Amino acid sequence: MNEPPYPTSLVLLASVTAVGLITWSIMNPVAPAKVAGDQPAPAVAMEAKTVMEMLAPAGPKSKTDRLLVEAEQMTLKRPQQAASWIQLGDALVQKQRETQAPVWYAQAEKAYQKAWQIEPQNTEALNGLAWVYGGRHDFKESVRWAKLALEVDPTHPISHGIIGDAAVELGDFERAYESYQAMMDARPDLSAYSRGAYLVWLSGDSRKARWLMQQAIDAGGPHAENTAWCHTRLAMMLFHEGALLPAAQAVEKALRETPDHAPLLLMQGKIKVAMDDEAGATAAYQAVLTQEENHEALVGMGDLHLLRGRKQEAEAFFQRVEKLHLSNAKQGIHDHTQMARFYADHDRELEKALTFAEEHAQTQNVYEADTLAWALYHKGEFLRARKVIEIALRAGTPDAEIYYHAGLIATALKDRPGAKKLLARALSLNPRFHPLHSGKAVKALDELAQPLATTE
């Protein structure tokens, strides 16, 4: 891609004035203690299955699996060294990133907790716990631990990155820009570039976002998975621009290095569906499901069957989605936003969809607001839906689904000019944005183009 050579210094903050989002104060009251005795204590006790037990029956297959086993053995040899537990925590984090399986969060927390108990001022332990809480969407605790790490090392790039991650999820883009810029100033690497790229994309600048993500890919990381994740994000950006072939090529290139990478395979499945390649999409989604039950893969397979009119086969996958949700609930894994989206997308369990979505009724997060507005629309609460969808639209995130939802809400409120504009925007971004909804968007826009019937 022939992108302009943007300067890395201040490349993020240059866009902050275009965001125009309300700055939340949710992180400001956090006042981490300065002494170890007053620090927040992780909630999980040090009792868990061994790594080998969790990898059974297949045993260690990947490079990361072998690193996990080696790290666990090191904790047995040197249990009083914080470094041993940090090594295990880092390997568990890597496993979670590769598989997207939430179960690894708990194991990583236990490892970092042990390291923190041995060395309360260890920044790697503090940041590890911050990362775990962030992954669970407990952002207040995530920021608390990251700020404790900054008290030890005020320039630590990972601490700034984690605080930025929380700010992104909370819709506080201005705080996110500041944190990511501090991270980039401290250490411009794959982690800093990729975080900045996603934030810039959320803010509506696809071109600069793709350039930054390519910088991340070129920088490389300590694990092939790190670079694979950046390829996934780049493909996502291309997909949302309707550039399906370049998106597919980005994924295929990365899969040659990391063939089992779940996020890459999920992205490949989505692209293949949009390209009307049922066999390719099925292969990608099933490759994920052979590793672990996965919400996105199950919904993708169900939608693929619905697209072909196979309702019974689709329902079998949707029942697996419900079963996974129940399993997640038993483990304390929060998946309510994605379940609300699933229900609304498929016009089922609409009361539950709204209940789940309204857990974030005060959200400034783009996708939480979009999901809430979509659930409200399906319940006929059009005025409130319009108010909420405006939050999702505010940043200019180039995602056709958001504009499609906004277009249907405007149609329901008889705002024909607004609806036409929003639906046209959705289809101009990517006319194949969703297997079930793209056709509906075309039909809705065609109906709006017809003259209104007049009564004599």
UniProtKB/TrEMBL annotation:
TPR repeats lie at residues 157-190, 400-433. It holds the Pfam family TPR_16. The keyword Repeat applies. It comes from the Bacteria. Keywords: Repeat, TPR repeat. The keyword Transmembrane does not apply. SMART domains: TPR. This is Tetratricopeptide (TPR) repeat protein.
